[in-house]
């Protein structure tokens, strides 16, 4: 598929490029915010699995709009395994969120002050082994949950990407142990029939309420603790199937007039909304220009392989 | 503790093979196959299934099958593992010895059993030892590094654990040892860095070596220094797989390593080899992903996502390969054909012009080549003497000399108007001899030979195409001279292909046909009578052509079917039936989109097998056969990866032989064994044009060597050889050294299904998938026997929807009924196919009616596709043929309706409307004797209803939008089903969405005086049903009760009863199948029982409650 083809196919990809976001994912957070008002009473945020950083861009913008000083005070932490280009007001941590070291690093930056919002858009980059992808995704959410438990102020909010696959019921139940209201939301800019969804947990019940007091709480401990709150074995081993009433509510976010992620739009479609009407008309007539994406994709793991192959070809 | 209870499977499941084990069983070998939660046992010598067990509940997939590590052979046991639990089985009767369950919550990455000690390495990088006799945990030990493992291995001799992490490194740490009991965690002793992705498998080898495979497509071998912690080095690094490498195993023979990959191949590697390539690649699985692997003393078993299991005798294969290489000593002769001195110096300019013209019109060549040509052209201008005599085409014939010996004879034609012949009868071939020379040095484009055996004489005829539209016919005499018989001006432009065909239907009539194809997509056919005589008669030509603007590049003719097939510049194949003749140009043809908008470069027809092969610039090799109506059916599509451009394809001794390029080298490539037969460094220069292989059936083996001779040309260089490839006895062995234990089903995800039931307990299941195949399978309810019977390849991309409409049922005299249906498949690239199916007692037959493709190049780029479809078959009283109406819902939001024209065999426009969202799903319902509703589910959560009325009197079809229901779901409507309740005059629609809910609507229908159908909403409710998007939904009526069945990506199948305004769950099935895309329910003929068919990554069939 050529560059232009991707533009035609994915209207949000185009919109992101035109509006200066590093990835189309930005709209997911924007649409979730529209519905859940996640930035209400928030002055400190942790963005997990943040690269290339479009969520951090949104967060930075929102906190600034509130009039918070994000330059002199450390209010946003963006964590990812990979390097990220700097974003105003974001402290970037390069690390694995499943590791204790990373959690401690975050705690140090915030000097043990609590946050009101933890978001995670993490996804494994294996994709190919369904079962394992889902397992890793599940672990990433648990790791994010672990960080949320340790940093969130009671009443705080948690947003994480989930794969609505095999063990999704189990994961939902784990999150329900920790938050008063839990929703499964799907932004309009996500594609239909995808297993992707975002779990939104509102009103964190607080560390004490869960009974977590231990100083050192690594992921495995957190996991076993969460699991022991209820007898999860029963659920896992199918002795108990989730009741229909237990299904957490599904919330579609984003306005109805938003673009439909499944449709193919003509390149003439005007995607940026904040322009004036007459400007739009002009745009419509103009030739469409291809804009390079803000952030180039990270090197694939098979880069060396490609080089090797070319080498072989040339030596023949 | 001991229990011998092993269950019969409750489900029939055919899907990805997830685990395999070759078991040594007495004197024979057995193969254990894990497919979903079912363990099947096969006898390898008899190649039959012996037993089948339901190992776990259907929601757990078998992930690994291994042997315990006990030293004594007789005390070994079998371990069958799923994600978080495992069972230990007796190696003789497969009874369960230990059921290891509920140990915790982590995923087990690797397990090892010695006696009753079970070691398990968990994904969170810790090890546990369990005592199985008491089911107690002996110890648990964490590695100091917190991370997630994808793979691991335990070496009990050195007490080391190797963990392959999801982030590039391999961690080696020490298992529990008493001395260090105090410390809580183990230190990382070695950290092997070098992989660039997830470590999918890691294994300890002999001598402190470790092998690993990864996302980065490499196999690496490491060596650690046991004396000095932290010290290690990378010993070797291998490349070759084109995609992720999933698994690794030791062959148990010559230190060889085996890997399986996402690229659907298995490779054999020699650890000690000097280069970093695989020594052999085993191909045969379809689609994507081979994940299951087991090796035992030189035997390899592989299992793919295609559901196939294959056994390879690696030892045999390698030995055979070596033997072949030794045998493969072809004698090769290369010739440079001399330029014929031009008598007339003034001609030079003319020649240059001619050359120019030729070059301009030769579109057969790669565009990249044009650079080379451009350069050449310039050089030419500088010095016309440098012009080369380029070989345009070749042919090999068997001539008979004066002494009645048969002689293999090669003929080459050049762009400078000369024809050369070479006698290949002795091992040192003679020098080329000029047979023909055109004074004007006109370009000869093609040559074709025909041998006519009539009475006891053998006549060799040769036709060439020369200049602009001239065809010359020659006879070869006993001195191998060409004697001109006829010269025909076929048209005014260059003829790209000439073909001679035998038309001497009776023994005393000397008649042949000559076909010329040109760049206007015309086939011009002449009949030539009495060619052996002075009073030769040439008929008026019949012209076969297409209306489309295109060019024919290559041509083959089948004498059996009397059809010619041409390949064009846009990836199409056209077939013309020569039994039709006319003075007017004939426009009757079959068109098949064979390759994606790329020119078809070559065609080859294997008459004995009735198979056609095509190659294209898209680098796919397609295989076709012909159905009873002489229609071409694609049966296979193979992506060629060893060559970059395939110029020519041929079959030899049942082996596929290709001529093509890789880098600067031109290869003759044995595709079956994946090895080169001959290569030549073209130094970026000339490209090969033709490859011809002649089976030397008449050639005296004693005199002239082995069975074959072949020739191919590299521009100005002709290469001839004989005595190559091996004899057929040796061939047999190669075939025997591999076999298939389970046949392949779909190579990729299944997206849709439909079914029929026959009178016996037989069911017919149609499935369509991402692999673009439409497959027909038979399933027997009694013995759970599943068999694929037919495969249609009319689609070029994913099939997303299959729908059917009953035509009629008739009770035949013999007391059984026959039913007929129209079946419609539709999917990506805006393509659909219509079929006709006939069913009776226990027979199902389906034949192809027409292909529909509405995709322009632009559409393809934008990935427009048909997402959903419906078909209506309506018969008006008194009419002989029914109305067949097809509706398509596209990704771009268009709802298009067509009628099928029975005579023209094509779909014709009827109605079209643009909705604002993609149409994800569609159903048709009959609402009165002559009207139908088409209900569409949209990606914005809405439902749209279109009504269709067929006027009895006028036979007009009136199409009208009837209802538009907004926001039935909060997200896309993925699936829906509906029925019409006559007693309430209402339509019931159930739909399932991405919002995890099932909605139920009751709409009342009202027919106005003008015949319009008015729809009003009478009842509506919606309720949560699943924890993920709902992908399959079926509504059924049973004893007056409405029942709903649903399936979702949360891997659950549920059955519901409609109770007032509520759905009551009556059954839940958890199944390990991923991507559950849909459900189809097949009722038995007597309506007494129903079978549920779930499709996704595989197919699962079970009884409905
Ligand atoms: C879908 S991207 C996030 C996009 C981001 N929210 C944005 O808007 O630009 C997922 C990211 O998760 C990161 N990731 C995956 N596993 C991780 C882990 N264990 N620790 C930290 N980051 C991880 C990947 O590196 C990747 O950049």
Q: What is the total tally of β strands of chain A?
A: 8
CATH homology-level superfamily of the domain at 332-339 and 346-646 in chain B: YVTN repeat-like/Quinoprotein amine dehydrogenase
Strand residue content of chain B: over 45%
Number of domains of chain A: 1
> How many beta-strand elements of chain B?
86
CATH class of the domain at 332-339 and 346-646 in chain B: Mainly Beta
Biggest interface goes to:
A-B, 71 and 80 residues
For the sheet with most strands of chain B, the description reads:
5 strands, mixed
- Kindly provide the radius of gyration of chain A, computed on alpha-carbon positions and rounded to a whole number of angstroms: 21 Å
Q: Spans of chain A with pLDDT under 50 lasting ≥5 residues?
A: 215-219, 227-238, 270-288, 290-297
CATH class descriptor name of chain A = Alpha Beta
Q: Oligomeric state of the chains?
A: heterodimer
Instruction: Give the integer mean of the pLDDT values of chain B.
Output: 83
Write the CATH homologous superfamily of chain A: Vaccinia Virus protein VP39
Number of helices of chain A: 12
Shape of chain B: flat
EC number (chain A): 2.1.1.205
Pfam families (chain A): FtsJ
Keywords (chain A): Cytoplasm, Methyltransferase, rRNA processing, S-adenosyl-L-methionine, Transferase, tRNA processing
InterPro entries (chain A): RNA_methyltr_E_TRM7, RNA_methyltr_RlmE, RNA_MeTrfase_FtsJ_dom, rRNA-MeTfrase_E, SAM-dependent_MTases_sf
């Amino acid at each position: 598929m050529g560059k232009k083809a991707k533009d035609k196919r994915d209207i949000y990809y185009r919109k992101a490029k035109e509006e200066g976001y590093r990835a189309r994912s930005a709209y997911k957070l924007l649409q979730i915010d529209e519905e859940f008002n996640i930035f209400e009473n928030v002055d400190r945020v942790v963005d997990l699995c943040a690269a290339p950083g479009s969520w951090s861009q949104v967060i930075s913008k929102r906190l600034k709009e509130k009039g918070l000083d994000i330059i002199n005070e450390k209010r946003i932490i963006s964590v990812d395994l990979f390097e990220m280009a700097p974003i105003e007001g974001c402290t970037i941590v390069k690390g694995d969120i499943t590791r204790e070291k990373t959690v401690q690093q975050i705690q140090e930056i915030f000097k043990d002050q609590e946050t009101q919002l933890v978001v995670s858009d993490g996804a494994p980059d294996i994709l190919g082994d369904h079962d394992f992808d889902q397992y890793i995704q599940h672990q990433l959410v648990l790791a994010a949950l672990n960080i949320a438990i340790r940093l969130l102020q009671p009443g705080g909010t948690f947003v994480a990407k989930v794969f609505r696959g095999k063990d999704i019921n189990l994961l939902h139940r784990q999150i329900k142990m920790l938050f008063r209201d839990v929703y499964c939301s799907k932004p309009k800019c996500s594609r239909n029939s995808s297993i992707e969804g975002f779990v939104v947990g509102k009103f964190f019940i607080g560390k004490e309420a869960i009974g977590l007091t231990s100083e050192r709480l690594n992921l495995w401990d957190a996991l076993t603790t969460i699991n022991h709150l209820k007898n999860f074995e029963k659920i896992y081993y199918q002795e108990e199937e989730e009741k229909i009433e237990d299904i957490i509510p599904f919330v579609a976010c984003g306005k109805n007039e938003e673009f439909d992620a499944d449709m193919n739009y003509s390149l003439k479609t005007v995607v940026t909304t904040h322009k004036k009407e007459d400007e739009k008309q002009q745009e419509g007539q103009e030739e469409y220009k291809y804009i390079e994406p803000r952030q180039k994709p990270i090197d694939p793991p098979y880069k060396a392989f490609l080089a090797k192959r070319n080498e072989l070809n040339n030596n023949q | 503790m001991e229990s011998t209870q092993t269950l019969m499977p409750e489900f029939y499941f055919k899907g990805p093979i997830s685990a395999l084990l070759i078991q040594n069983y007495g004197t024979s070998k057995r193969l254990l196959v894990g497919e979903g939660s079912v363990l099947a046992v096969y006898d390898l010598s008899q190649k039959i299934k012996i037993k089948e067990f339901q190992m776990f509940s259907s929601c757990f997939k078998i992930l690994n099958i291994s042997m315990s590590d006990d030293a004594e052979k007789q005390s070994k046991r079998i371990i069958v593992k799923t994600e978080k639990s495992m069972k230990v089985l007796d190696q003789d009767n497969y009874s369960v010895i230990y059921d290891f369950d509920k140990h915790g919550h982590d995923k087990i990455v690797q397990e090892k059993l010695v006696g009753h000690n079970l070691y398990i390495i968990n994904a969170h990088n810790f090890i546990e030892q369990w005592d199985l006799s008491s089911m107690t945990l002996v110890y648990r030990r964490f590695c100091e590094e917190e991370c997630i493992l994808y793979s691991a291995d335990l070496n009990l001799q050195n007490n080391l654990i190797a963990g392959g992490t999801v982030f590039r490194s391999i961690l080696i740490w020490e298992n529990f040892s008493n001395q260090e009991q105090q410390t809580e965690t183990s230190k990382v002793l070695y950290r092997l860095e070098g992989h660039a992705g997830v470590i999918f498998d890691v294994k300890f080898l002999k001598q402190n070596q470790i092998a690993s495979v990864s996302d980065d497509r490499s196999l690496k071998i490491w060596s650690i220094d046991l004396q000095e912690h932290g010290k290690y080095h990378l010993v070797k690094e291998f490349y070759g797989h084109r995609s992720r490498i999933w698994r690794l195993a030791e062959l148990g023979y010559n230190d060889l390593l085996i890997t399986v990959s996402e690229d659907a191949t298995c490779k054999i590697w020699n650890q000690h080899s000097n280069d970093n390539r695989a020594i052999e690649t085993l191909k045969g699985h379809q689609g994507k992903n081979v994940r299951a692997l087991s090796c035992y003393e030189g035997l390899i078993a592989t299992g793919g996502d295609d559901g196939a299991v294959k056994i390879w005798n690696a030892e045999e294969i390698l030995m055979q390969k070596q033997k072949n290489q030794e045998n493969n000593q072809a004698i090769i002769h290369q010739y440079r054909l001399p330029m014929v001195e031009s008598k007339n110096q003034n001609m030079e300019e003319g020649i240059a012009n001619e050359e120019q013209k030729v070059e301009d019109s030769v579109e057969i060549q790669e565009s990249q080549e044009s650079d080379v040509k451009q350069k050449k052209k310039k050089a030419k201008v500088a010095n016309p003497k440098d012009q080369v005599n380029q070989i345009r085409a070749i042919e090999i014939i068997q001539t008979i000399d004066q002494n009645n010996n048969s002689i293999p004879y090669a003929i080459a034609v050049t762009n400078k108007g000369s024809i050369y012949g070479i006698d290949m009868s002795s091992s040192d071939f003679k020098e080329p001899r000029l047979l023909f020379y055109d004074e004007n040095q006109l370009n000869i484009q093609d040559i074709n030979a025909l041998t006519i055996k009539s009475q006891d004489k053998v006549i060799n005829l040769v036709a060439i195409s020369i200049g602009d539209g001239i065809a010359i016919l020659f006879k070869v005499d006993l001195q191998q001279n060409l004697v001109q018989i006829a010269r025909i001006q076929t048209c005014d432009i260059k003829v790209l292909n000439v073909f001679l065909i035998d038309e001497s239907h009776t023994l005393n009539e000397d008649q042949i046909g000559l076909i010329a194809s040109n760049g206007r997509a015309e086939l011009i056919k002449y009949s030539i009578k009495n060619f052996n005589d002075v009073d030769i008669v040439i008929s008026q030509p019949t012209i076969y052509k297409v209306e489309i603007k295109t060019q024919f590049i290559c041509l083959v003719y089948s004498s059996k079917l009397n059809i010619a097939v041409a390949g064009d510049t846009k990836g199409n194949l056209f077939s013309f039936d020569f039994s039709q003749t006319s003075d007017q140009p004939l426009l009757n043809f079959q068109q098949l989109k064979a390759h994606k908008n790329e020119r078809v470069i070559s065609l080859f027809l294997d008459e004995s097998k009735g198979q056609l092969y095509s190659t294209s610039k898209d680098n796919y090799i397609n295989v076709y056969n012909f159905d009873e109506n002489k229609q071409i059916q694609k049966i296979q599509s193979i992506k060629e990866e060893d060559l970059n451009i395939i110029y020519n394809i041929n079959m030899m001794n049942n082996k596929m032989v290709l001529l093509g390029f890789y880098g600067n080298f031109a290869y003759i490539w044995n595709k079956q064994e994946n090895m080169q037969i001959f290569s030549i460094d073209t130094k970026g220069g000339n490209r090969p044009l033709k490859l011809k292989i002649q089976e030397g059936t008449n050639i005296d083996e004693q005199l002239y060597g082995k069975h074959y001779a072949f020739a191919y040309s590299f521009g100005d260089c002709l290469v001839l050889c004989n005595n190559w490839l091996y004899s057929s006895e040796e061939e047999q062995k190669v075939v025997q050294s591999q076999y298939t234990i389970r046949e392949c089903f779909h190579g990729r995800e299944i997206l849709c299904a439909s079914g029929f039931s026959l009178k016996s307990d037989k069911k017919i299941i149609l499935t369509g998938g991402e692999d673009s195949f439409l497959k027909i399978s038979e399933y027997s309810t009694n013995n759970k026997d599943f068999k694929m019977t037919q495969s249609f390849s009319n689609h070029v991309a994913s099939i997303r929807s299959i729908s059917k409409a009953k035509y009629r049922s008739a009770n035949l005299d013999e007391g059984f009924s026959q039913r007929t249906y129209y079946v419609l498949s539709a999917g990506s690239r805006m393509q659909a196919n219509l079929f006709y199916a006939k069913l009776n007692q226990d027979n199902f037959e389906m034949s192809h009616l027409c292909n529909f493709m509405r995709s322009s190049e632009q559409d393809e780029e934008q990935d427009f596709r048909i997402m959903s479809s419906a078909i209506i078959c309506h018969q008006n009283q008194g009419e002989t043929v029914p109305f067949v109406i097809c509706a398509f819902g596209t990704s771009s939001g268009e709802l298009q309706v067509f009628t099928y024209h029975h005579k023209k065999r094509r779909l014709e426009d009827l109605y079209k409307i643009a909705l604002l969202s993609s149409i994800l799903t569609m159903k048709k319902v009959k609402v009165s004797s002559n009207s139908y509703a088409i209900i569409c589910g949209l990606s914005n959560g809405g439902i749209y209803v279109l009504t269709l009325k067929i006027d009895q009197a006028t036979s007009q079809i009136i199409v009208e939008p009837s209802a538009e229901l907004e926001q039935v779901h909060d997200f896309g409507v993925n699936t829906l089903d509906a029925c019409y309740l006559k007693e309430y005059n209402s339509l019931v629609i159930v739909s399932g969405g991405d919002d995890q809910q099932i909605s139920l609507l009751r709409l009342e229908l009202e027919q106005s005086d003008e015949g319009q159908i008015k729809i009003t909403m009478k009842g509506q409710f919606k309720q949560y049903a699943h924890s993920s998007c709902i992908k399959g939904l079926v509504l059924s009526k049973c004893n007056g009760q409405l029942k709903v069945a649903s399936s979702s990506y949360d891997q659950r199948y549920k059955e519901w009863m409609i109770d007032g305004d509520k759905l009551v769950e009556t059954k839940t099935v958890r199944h390990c199948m991923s991507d559950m895309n849909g459900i189809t329910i097949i009722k038995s003929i007597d309506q007494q029982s129903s079978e549920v068919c779930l499709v996704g990554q595989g197919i699962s069939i079970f009884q409905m409650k």
